[in-house]
Amino acid sequence: MATPTPTLEIENLHVSVEGKEILKGVSLAVSQGEIHALMGPNGSGKSTLAGTIMGYPKYQVTEGDIRFQGESILGLTPDERARRGLFLSLQYPVAIPGVTLVNFLRRAVSSVRGQDMPIREFTTLLQEKMSLLKVDREFARRYVNEGFSGGEKKKSEILQLAVLQPKLAVLDETDSGLDIDALRTVSEGINAVAGPDLGILIITHYQRILNYVKPHYVHVLAEGRLVRSGGPELAVEIESRGYDWLLAPTA
C-alpha cells in the first residue's frame, strides 16, 4: 500500500537573509492529523523556517523545495499559500487600530475562499468557533490586538486559526511571553482545533507548552540544521539536559 503524500514537505531547504545563510539543508514532513514540535536554541533558524514556509519575501530560498499537497509552493505569494490551506500564527502579532476582529476575520475568510462569505453564514461559523474556544463574544468587537494582553493576542491568533480552517498551521512561538494561566488557555484552544484535518507545527524554545499540547514528533533545529528527531520524550530530555548535549561533536 502506497504511503500517503505528507501535507507539507520541506526538502533540503537552504535559506539566506541579506546574503547570510540561515537554514542549511532542512528536511521535514508534516501530515494532516499530526502535531510536530520544532525546538531549538535562540538564533537556530526556527522563525526563519516559519517565514519561509509562508513565503515572506526577505527569506531567499537558494536550494531545496517546499511542497504543499505534493506541489511546490516556492513561486506562490503568502496570500496564495493561505488560499491553499497554510496558516501562520505570528510570534509578535501586530495591532490594527480601527479594524474590529470580527470584520478582520470575515475579510480573511472571504479572501481565503476567493469569494465573499454571506454575513449570516459567517456569523454562524464565528459563534461556533468562539464557543469551541470559550471566547466571550465581546472579544470579537475589539480592534485587532489593540490594547490586548500577550495572552489575548495569542487567543486571537487561535481564533483566526479556528475560523480559517486551514489544512496546516505553523505556530511560531505561540507560548512566548505567556504566564502559566494564559499558556494553559492558549493550549486548550490549540487542542480544541486539533484533529484529523489539521496538521500542526509548533515552533517553541521551551518544553512547557508541550506539557499541554502533546506532539507526535519532536525535532531539534540548531545552527540552521535539524540535529535530532524523536518522540515526545525528546522534549522532556531537552528540558532536563538543555541543548548543548545535542550540539557537542561526536567522537
Beta-strand fraction estimate: 25-35%
- For the record, the CATH architecture of the domain at 8-91 and 165-247 stands as 3-Layer(aba) Sandwich
| CATH overall fold name of the domain at 8-91 and 165-247 | Rossmann fold
**Beta strand count:** 12
- Poorly predicted sequence stretches spanning 5 or more consecutive residues: none
The ordered string of helix (H) and strand (E) elements is EEEHEEHEEHHEHEHEEEHH
Taking strands numbered 1, 2, ... along the chain, how are they ordered across the largest sheet?
6-9-10-3-11-12
Q: Helical stretch count?
A: 8
Give Rg in angstroms.
Answer: 18 Å
Provide the helix percentage: 25-40%
Instruction: Please write the CATH class name of the domain at 8-91 and 165-247.
Output: Alpha Beta
**Would you tell me the structural class of the helices and strands?**
alpha/beta
Mean residue pLDDT? 92
- CATH H-level name of the domain at 8-91 and 165-247... which superfamily? P-loop containing nucleotide triphosphate hydrolases
User: How far is the N terminus from the C terminus?
Assistant: 40 Å
The main sheet comes to:
6 strands, mixed
Query: What general outline do the C-alpha atoms trace?
Result: globular
